[in-house]
Design goal:
Two copies of one chain form a homodimer. By secondary structure, chain A is mainly α. Chain A is built from seven helices and three strands; from the N terminus they run H-E-H-H-E-E-H-H-H-H. Chain A has a three-stranded antiparallel β-sheet with strand order 1-3-2. The structure holds a DNA duplex.
DNA sequence: CGACACATGTAACACGTTACATGATTTG
DNA sequence: CAAATCATGTAACGTGTTACATGTGTCG
């Protein structure tokens, strides 16, 4: 629902045409999240289907304009007012990967962590470099400020991820002996159950 | 691609049937990401379509088993080896929302930040409470360790988000006067261009 | 002239997700 | 017996994403 609302927000500033929306979207978020042009048109079609936007004639240059509707403005206001749900967050692939790795003794989990950490830190450095550039010029336009914030979000996230990975490694080392050798093959995996019994299918 | 690979990882430990997979998936990730049962079956169908799993007869109790194939194992190994891409991260809804809010003067961006922060912090507290419980019992099984790691990932992320929100607020306050009054309506938004000219559609 | 940016779309697919149908088995 | 859990699926929809088709205008 990001593109949808993003486009809606752009249209709230006045009628726009497809190609223009892509351009503005990208200049708001920096080139961080390139937006395929085709997607603008499909998204616009869906927004129109839901009566959040309507075709609004043409530009001086013949561009097909779209305008936000009242319903669209309402939806947009609600979107801004409604916090992004972090209580049922989207499944994070990395978290799932590590959770699965923990449960699979044959996987070298430290290698997984190490590879990810290298990647994450490199990404963080790239973002930091971009941020330095962005600050150097001094963010003056709204677009530049917006991009700076996005960049910083990426940096904060990457940093948190790196720290989490360190934490995982430390925790796994600490717990290595308390697990480790037990429960190595499939059939007997459901033998011991303490509180997670409710999560497990009965064996009959 | 999280569920797909998650199920594959579970199947790597031996043949499983659908319902069982959901149960095991959930006990690995804690109840953090409830998995609709139907989704297991659709995902299994797609995995079978791609020859990553095959039907493997029945259980003693008549459950329809699936087994991972060599191709599936290869795919799984590659998945573990390949870091999750953080250089072209999935569009983060919150980042987009703030980027759009910055560009829309009529939006009360501080209210948006404040609402989000409350939500995020509350989520963080919930997770922290769960973590305390998890640690209290002492994580012994692999499942419990996995869940603990997932929980901590959520906590780390939420914390980073909260800090980023604070940072945004501070930055916006600092930049308030240097922007603020300029560039308030749509038509003239494209007048001043420094480096972001390349991002903007030409006006003709 | 040829390459490239501008500009508008359509078709097709992937994954995630929910709702529904259906029945067996267990348990209070 | 009724409700809940176990168990297997199907149908349908939503968003995100890519590939393709097509044409205009511009610039070196």
């Amino acid at each position: 629902m990001s593109i949808r609302h993003g486009l809606l927000a752009l249209l709230d500033r006045g009628p726009r045409y497809g190609y223009q929306l892509r351009t503005e979207f990208e200049s708001r978020t920096g080139a961080t999240w390139p937006l395929n042009v085709g997607q603008v048109y499909t998204t616009l079609a869906r927004l129109e289907r839901d009566s959040l936007v309507v075709p609004a004639g043409e530009d001086d240059s013949g561009h097909a304009l779209y305008a936000i509707t009242d319903k669209g403005r309402t939806e947009l206001r609600e979107w801004f007012a409604r916090p992004v749900d972090r209580k049922s967050p989207p499944r994070d692939e990395l978290a799932i990967k590590l959770a699965m790795a923990v449960g699979s003794p044959e996987v070298d989990i430290r290698a997984v962590i190490q590879a990810q950490r290298l990647h994450t830190i490199r990404a963080m450095q790239d973002y930091t470099r971009l941020k330095a550039q962005a600050i150097e010029t001094g963010p003056t336009t709204r677009d530049e400020v917006a991009w700076l914030l996005v960049l910083e979000q990426l940096i904060f996230s990457a940093e948190a991820e790196a720290r989490w990975l360190d934490h995982c490694e430390a925790r796994l080392v600490r717990l290595a002996e308390s697990i480790g050798q037990a429960d190595d093959d499939a059939p007997k995996r459901q033998a011991d159950s303490t509180d997670s019994a409710t999560h497990r299918p009965a064996r009959r």
